[in-house]
Amino acid sequence: MSELDTIVAPATPVGRSALAVVRIDGPLSGQILATLSGSLPEERKAAFTRIRQGGEPIDECVAIFYKAPRSFTGNDLVELMLHGSPVIIERVIVAARQLGARIAEPGEFTERAVLNGKLDLVQAESIADLVDARTSLQAKLSLLNVEGRLSRTCASIRESLLHVISRLEAALDFSEEGYEFITRADARMRLEAALAEIRAVADTYERGRATRAGITAVILGQPNAGKSTLLNTLVGSERAIVTPIPGTTRDIVRETIEIGGLPMTFLDTAGLREHADLVEEIGIRRARDASRSADIVLYLIDATRGADAYDEAEIAALAGRHVVVVQTKRDLAASSGLAISAATGEGMRELIAHLDAIVRERFAVPEASPSIVNERQRAAVAECESGLSAALDSIAGNADEQFIVVDLYRAANALGTLTGAVSRDDVLREIFSKFCIGK
Amino acid sequence: MTTDAARCFTWNMSSQFDIIVIGGGHAGAEAARVCARGGARVAMITMMRDAIGRMSCNPAIGGLAKGNLVKEIDALGGLMGEAADRAGIQFKVLNRSKGPAVQGPRAQCDKEIYSRAVQDILAAESNITFVESAVQALLFGSSALTGLRLTDGTELRARATIVTTGTFLRALMHSGEVKTAGGRFGEPSAETLSDSLRAAGLELGRLKTGTPPRIERTSVDFSLLTEARGDAEPRAFSILTDRIALPQVLCHVTYTGAFAHELIRANLHRAPMYSGQIRATGPRYCPSIEDKVVRFADKDRHQIFVEPEGLDHPWLYMNGISTSLPADVQDALVHSLPGFAHARIGRYGYAVEYDFVNPQQLDATLQVRGVAGLFLAGQINGTSGYEEAAAQGLMAGINALQYVRGGDPVVLRRDEAYAGVMIDDLVTLGTEEPYRMFTSRAEHRLLLGCDSVYERLTPIAESLGIVDDERRRRAESRVTRMHRAKTLALETSLTPDRATQEWMGAAGFELTAKTSVAKLVQRAEFHVEHFLAVAAPAFPALTSALTALSAEELEGVTSALRYSGYIERQQREASRSAGDEQTRLSAEMSYALPGLSREVVEKLSSVRPSSLGQASRIPGMTPAAIAILRMHLRRKSAETPAEHAPV
Question: B351: which of A183, A233, B324, B512 fits an S-S bond (Cβ 3.0–4.6 Å)?
C-alpha cells in the first residue's frame, strides 16, 4: 500500500505582503498543525492561533483544517494565513519539514486533487489558467471551466452519443427481440445536434486561445504614416522614438494594453518602402512576417498624402487577414472612414471602440459558454467532430449499425479523453435499463 | 458411486494423472478433450456420466456473439461445433442482413442427440478416464494444488485441476415456495467443494439463474402460433462437417397478454425473487417473466419462442418466460397463452441459486492467482451460457496443458477472439451478474467475424499440437482459397474499353474509369452472382478462384473487400493500443507508487493486471493513474533493461 506523504509549500508568491498562505497536504498535516499551534482547530473553521517552534513563537495566524475528503485535494489539508514576510514563511516551512512534510513539486496540490477525483483534467488545467489570468474576462472564463462548464458540456454531448450508441448496439446484439430500438431519422437528428454543439465548442478554440494568449495587432504603413505616434498614444507614453525622418523605426516595438477585456499587444514596425538601406530592409521583412501571424493588422495611411498604388498593393497582399485601414493626421487634411489624429486625440476613442467591437465579436468567448483553451483539448474536440461527421456519412450511406458505431465510439472516446472514458458496460447498462431484453 | 466408476477405471491410492477436470458440462468437456488431444493423461470426474454434455436450459447452441464463440472453439480444435452440427434440427444465421462481423450462427438442437454426441467425442479420446463420483475436497501442497479427494475417500493426484462445476456449488433450486438442494432438476448439489475453494483463499459470491416451464408438445394447438423458420440452406458450425444429417424442423412464436401480466402481478409475493427468498443477482438480459412484468410495466406483451427440445422429444421449451413462480401460477400463465389453452406442463420452471468465484481472483489463463495448478472455467466464474462456458473450458484446458508441459501461457488478445474479450473482461472487471457475451463488448468487433476465424486462430492451436490433421488441412485450404480470391480481386483491374463496358453493362455495372475488382465490390449495386455470370471470359483466373469458394467463403471474401476501409481502421486502432497491451506488469509488482491514490492501489493490487492495457480497463482507473504507472515503468526499464523483456 502506498503511504501518501505530506507536502508543504507557500500558496502565494514569496515576497513582502500583508498576508501569505502556506498549504500543507497529506496525512500528517493535522498533526503538524497541532504541534505548531498547540491544538487542532475544529474542521473547516478559521481559527486564530500562534505558531511556535520549540517554544519559540514564529507568527500569529489564521489556520483552517480541512478533513479528508472534504478538501481541495481530497486529503487532510491545512491552510495557514500568515503575515507576508519571507522570513516567517521560510521558518514555517522549515518547521513543517522537520515534522515530516516535504516541499511540494510545482502543481502537486492540483495533481493530488485530480488523482483523488476532486477535479478532472479540464478543471485542473483551468485552475492554472485562472491563476495566470491577466484580465478579468480571462479570469471569469477560466472560473467557468473550473466550475466544470466545459466538462459538463462534453458530458452532455457524450450522454447523447451514448444514447445513440446503445440503441444501435442493441439493434445488433438483440435483433431477435422484435424492437425497433432507434430510427435512422432519430439517430441522425441527435447526432446532428451533437455535431452542432461540438462545433460550437471547437469554435471557442481560436477565441479561447486569444483569451489565454491575448491578441496581437500589427501596425503597418509607409514611413512617416504615424505608426510610432499611434503606439505611443495608445499606451500613453513615449514608448517609440518619433521623428519626422522617414525610417526612424527599424526593429519592432511591442506594447500591451487591455481592449475588449483581453490583452492586445500592438507591434510598431518599420515603414514599408521599396528603396531602404540594409538595416531598414531587415526591419521591413520583420514587419511583413509579424503581419502574417498577427490577429489584426492596422494599416495606416497618411491623410495628407492619401492612399497610393503602393498602399493598395500592400493591403491586397494582406487578403485573408483582419485588416483595419486607418487614416492618420486627420487634423491636417480631409479624411474619410476611420481617421485619427494622434496629435489632437481626435478619432482615438472611435478607433478603440472599433477594436473593442472586433475583439468582442471575433475573439472573446461569449461569457456564458464553455471554451477550450489548449492544444490537448482542441485535438480531442477535433477528433470528436471528425468521428461524428464520419458516422453521419455512414448513416447517409445507409451503412450497418456496426460501421456507424465505429466512428461514434471514436467521437465518444475523444470526449472521454477530456473528462473520462465511456466504458462498454455503460452501453449495456443503458440498453438494459431502457429495454426489456428477454430472450 | 465407486462401483459405477470402477466400470471404466480401476485405480489404486497412488493413481496419477496429469490433469483432472471436475465436471462434465460444456466447459469440462472442452477442457478434457483439449488436454487429452495435447497428450495429457486426463481424469474427468462427474457425478453422473450420462449427464455429460447435457443442455440444462435452452435447446440451442450459438446465437449473436455466442455463435462466434462456437466458431472460435472449432478453429481452436474444440468440440462444441461438431456436436451442434450432429444434433442441429434448425440452423439460422442471425443478423443475416447485417455485416459479417455481427452475424451469429445458431442451431436448435436435439438435446438427447447433443449430449450423446459430446459423450461420443470424448469417448473417442483414449487419454480420458471417466470417474463417476463427487469431490470431497481439493488437496494442497506447500505451493500448489496436488490433487483431490473423492467423497468415498479415494485420493487422485494430478499436477493441474480444472474446476468446471457450473451451477452445482451449494446449489439451491426454487420453485415457488419450495426449495430443493440441487444444481439441475434431479441432480444433487456439490456441497463441500466451496469450502475447499475458500481454503484456497478464494472469495465466493451467489448468483441465480432460471429456466422456463417445459410443455408437452401434444397438448399445444400449433395452428394458433406463428411459424419461425430456419435458413433454407443450413450452415454448419464446424469445418469438419460436410452436411447436416438430421431433418430440419419448425419453431413457433407466441406472446403473453394482459391476463398473464395481471396474474403475475397478483402473485409476485409468491415468487422467490420478490419475496426475498432469493437474494442472489440474476442476469439483466434474460430476466424472469416476473422481472419483465414489473420492470417493463408499459409493455402489453412479451414474445415467447416455442422451441422443440428434440426431434422426438415430448417437450417444448418456452424461451422467454423463465420463472420461479409456484406451480398453480405457472399453469394459469401457460393456459392464458394463445395455443396453450389445454397445455400440460411437463416440468415447471425453476430458479437455481449457486456459489460463484469472482473471476478477478484469476489470472488471464483462468488459473487461480496464488494457487499454482488450480484452474476455473464456466459458470463458476460468473458467466452464463453454454458457449461462454465451453470457450473458457477450452482456454483453461489449453493453459493447464501448457502449465503441465512447462509451455508459455496462451492468452488470446481482445482484437483476436471473442474468447479473449470475455476472459479479459472477467479477470479485469469481475462480474456482479451472470456474464454473457455480446458483440458490443468487443471494441475491435469488425476483426472478429466468423469468416476470419480459421485464419486468426487455427495457427495458434496448431502450434500447440491440439488440432487434428483433418481440421488443420481443411482450415489451411480454406484460408488459402479465400486469400487467393481476395488477392486476385485486388490485383485484377478493369479498363473502361468498349469490350469491357459492353459485357459489364450487360450485368448492370457501369464502368467509366479504370478500377479494380476489389473497388467494384464496394459499390452498392455489386452482386457477386451477376459478376460471375459475365466475367469468366475476361478474367478466367479470378472467376475460377471465386467459384472455388463455398457460399460461406464467398460471403467472407466479398465482405472483407466491401468493408476493407472500416476493417483497416479498426486494425490501426488495435495496433495503436498494442503498445500498452504488450507493456507487461509483473505479478509481484508493488503499486505503492507516489501519486497513486489508495483506491487505485487497492484496485491494482486486487486485479494484478498483466499489462498496462489491462490496467487501463479496470473500473475506476483514472487516465492520470495510468500516466503515473507508465512513467514508473519507463523509469524502471531504464534502470534494469533486462526486466523489460517480453513474457
Answer: B324
pTM of the model: 0.77
| Chain A residues closer than 8 Å to B445 by CB | 402
Answer for the pair B392, B223: CB distance below 8 angstroms, yes or no: no
Q: Which residues of A touch B619 (CB under 8 A)?
A: 423, 425
Span B594-636, pLDDT tens digits = 667 778 888 898 889 989 889 988 887 776 677 777 767 776 7
Cβ(B393)–Cβ(B26) under 8 Å? yes
> Among candidates A41, A54, A192, A410, which has minimal Cα distance to B443?
A410
- B591 touches A at CB < 8 Å: yes
B318, closest residue in chain A (CA to CA): A439
Choose among B287, B429, B592: nearest Cβ to A1. B592
Q: What is the DSSP string of A2-48?
A: PPP-EEEEESS-SSSEEEEEEEEESTTHHHHHHHHHSSPPPTT--EE
Cell triple for residue B647? 513474457
Sign of CA pseudo-dihedral B520, B523, B526, B528: positive
Chain A nearest C-alpha distance from B360 (Å)? 16
Query: Which pLDDT does position B389 carry in this prediction?
Result: 98
B27–A contact, CB cutoff 8 A: no
Interface predicted TM-score (ipTM):
0.84
| Cα separation, A402 vs B315, whole angstroms | 37
Asked whether the beta carbons of B329 and B264 are under 8 A apart, the reply is yes
Cβ contact (<8 Å) for A4 and B438? Answer: no
Residues of chain A contacting residue B628, judged by C-beta atoms under 8 Å apart: 115
> Which residues of A fall within a CB distance of 8 Å from B605?
1
Cell 475523444 belongs to residue: A414
Of A87-91, A98-102, B362-366, the poorest mean pLDDT is in A87-91
Quote the minimal CA–CA distance from B344 to chain A in Å. Answer: 22
Q: Residue B27 to residues A135, A286, B42, B52: CA-CA distances in angstroms?
A: 67, 76, 14, 10
Q: CA of B232 to nearest chain A CA: how many angstroms apart?
A: 18
CA dist list (Å): A284 to A112, A290, A301 = 50, 10, 17
Residues in Cβ contact with B70 at an 8 Å cutoff, skipping those fewer than 6 apart: B61, B62, B80, B81, B84, B105, B237, B387, B390
> Is B563 close to A436, i.e. CB distance below 8 A?
no
Question: Count of A–B CB contacts within 8 Å?
Answer: 120
